[in-house]
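Subject: design request, 83 residues
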């Protein structure tokens, strides 16, 4: 059986799924090195829906989802120019 990896562009329609994976990835990666209060403050600031919508609408900032065997496995953010 061959595994399938794919990358797709995130759109405003994906904002809730994007918010979920951004928060989970950051908690998994940085949670043990930060206080719960500091993590909450950062996550609330960086990944609230208003902020994510602003970034998704910015032509110099792009988000992508990585799917593995049809399941969301990660995300990637690419900033260009002033983003």
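Subject: RE: design request

Done. Sequence follows.
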């Amino acid at each position: 059986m061959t595994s399938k990896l794919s990358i797709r562009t995130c759109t405003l329609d994906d904002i809730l799924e994007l918010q979920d994976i951004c928060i989970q990835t950051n908690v998994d990666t940085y949670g043990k090195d930060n206080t719960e209060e500091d993590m909450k403050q950062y996550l609330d600031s960086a990944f609230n829906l208003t902020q994510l919508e602003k970034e998704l609408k910015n032509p110099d900032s792009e988000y992508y989802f990585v799917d593995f065997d049809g399941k969301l496995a990660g995300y990637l953010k690419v900033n260009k120019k002033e983003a």
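Helices lie at 15-30, 36-46, 49-57.
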